[in-house]
Amino acid sequence: MDAPTVAAQPATAPAQAARPGNDAPTTAVADDIAEVEPVEEDADAEPADEEAPVGRRAAWGRWLYKSSAMIISGAVHMVALIVLSLLVIEPPGSLQMPEVIAQVVEEPELQDDLKVELENQLTHVQEVTSQMVSSSMELGAVGASGPQGLISAPTVDKGLLEQVVNSEVNIEGVFVDVPSTKRLIVEAPDGQIGDARAVVGSYQEALDRLTQEILWMLDKGPVLVVWLFDQSESMKDDQKEIRDRIEHVYTELGLMSKTNSGALETSVCSYGNDPNFRVHTRAPTSARTEIMAAIDDVPLDQSGEEYMCSAVLKALQIHRPYAQRARRQLAVIIVTDESGNRNDNDANMERAIQELKNSRSRLYVLGREAVFGYPYARIRWQHPQSKRIHWLPIDRGPETAFVEQLQIDGYHRRWDAHPAGFGPYEATRMARETGGIFFLLPSLETNLVRGEKIKYEMQAAYYPDLRSRPEVKADIDRSPLRTTLEKVIYDLNPYKEKMAELRVDGFSTDYEPLARQIQQELAKVPTLLQYLSKAELAVSKLADERKQESSPRWQANYDLLHAQTIAYQARVHEYGAYMEQFLKDLQAYVRNPTDPKNKFKPPPKTKGSLIHDDWHVRGRTQTITGDKIKPYVERSTAMFKQVMQDHPGTPWAARADAEIRRGFGVELYPEYEPPLPNTKLTPPPKY
Fold first, then answer.
1. pTM score, two decimals?
2. pLDDT tens by residue, 321-351
3. Which of 31, 294, 383, 636 allows an S-S link to 567, with CB 3.0 to 4.6 Å?
4. Range of 224's domain?
5. How far from chain centre, in Å, is Cα 373?
């Protein structure tokens, strides 16, 4: 039997014999093998030579089929290489570098524009930071009430803003072009202390910054602003000015889209005596006309009492539930020129602070400077019937928790309005503790007695200690120096019944009563001199403690008070000597009015339409005691100059300068007033 015939195969696909036991070739070689059929031994089998051409053609077709992927891939890569070879790659030197440089050059202009906006705002940020640091618990100390509280006293009880003439489009453009408040400066975080001393030159400047504060709050969500106006007589002119300027503020706020949807609502309240608290808006409103009408409705309280802390508590009690339901932030703004009722402040200040914190409310105050180390100032008031001038006392200080300065000027209780550089302690503390601001209006009030417009440049260490009274008192009690100064101040308290206080006005024009009055005052001179001498001795023993005192504020307190106890002895000696000589001359005149040797010369009974009403004491540089007071004058003058040198730019330096300029001598001079009418006079108001 002939062997089977195998078709020819390409060299690239060698045949693989079947493995023993397999019925067919393996899959790996099945496609490469030509058709192999066993030739049976029958007569019909075709010769192998006839199949050879057909097998070769089939093998070639299979090779082309199997190689098609490789051929296509090679063609694609060839085309790609040809295309890439035709691309022109530009060398780095031909890049458009000038265009890139031009874009970079424009950038500084944008930075300069932004820098202007930042500088305008950074002024405020620096001031805020300064106050926050200066009022910290580690710095300074303050005073206003003694161990028994504040020094007690008898119960006592500008214009119109020009509207900016700008088109509405221009004003809106300003707000649109200015970057948002968040981009300019960052608002103080919630819970941080506020600004205890934002010095502003006018109500307009204060309200401009207050507008910014409200806008910051509006950035977070809806706001309810509660205005609290002081109802006292002394605030009527201020209320009119503020009312017109507030209208301008709300006009500006109304231009902001965020306020158009009622995001800002306002309530207007006022306070005087405790029962006179009033709410002048029926409900919180966004209507400017209602707000202005409510301010016009603030009444005049005749009691002369301002229950400021109680008013804050009542305002919160009324408005806090509404603010919480409406999910509104709450801001309280006090407008006052006084420090408030002493008893109310002592009882309710800390409670008011806690309630403000609990309601997450900020307190802002538009107020005046406190009198340096003294609770009271005096406001000029002319009687409408008699045309006479009255100086009415108002609560205006001090700037500290307890008084730290002498309450006398050498003869009697102080009448000056020497500025402290800070607002009254209570309002300042409430604003600072709640993250608000006390806007200090240092502009000189024309009706304020002996006021001076002074801009201090105090360092933080001289700022008052705005901690709570118990904390401040604890520090005083731990220091022998501070304790002694406190005792001297309260021993020389002119409001104490047993304290010797020399008369300086109201001396009679009738000679016999005048002589008796002078004799009464001469009897007080030894007592007051003894007080001052003991005070000087006690303070002088603290020289070593003064060297160890770490607080510049208390160092200044010591230096000024020590000099004053010496200077005031010279003035009291001079007062006694002058009054004694005046009495002798007066008595000689009464005995023999026609004696040409008389030194006393009766003043004219009238000057024009005025009449001689009484005698007043005033200071002068000329003295009559000579060598008797010379050591006191020289020592105290040198010490006052040292205060000015050691504590420049502070109220202590300004006060020392005033003491030197004041002189050490005294004299009596006739006071002339309009004649009293024959009708019953209405009593002066209580401020």
1. 0.71
2. 999 999 999 999 999 999 999 999 999 999 9
3. 636
4. 195-369+421-447
5. 21
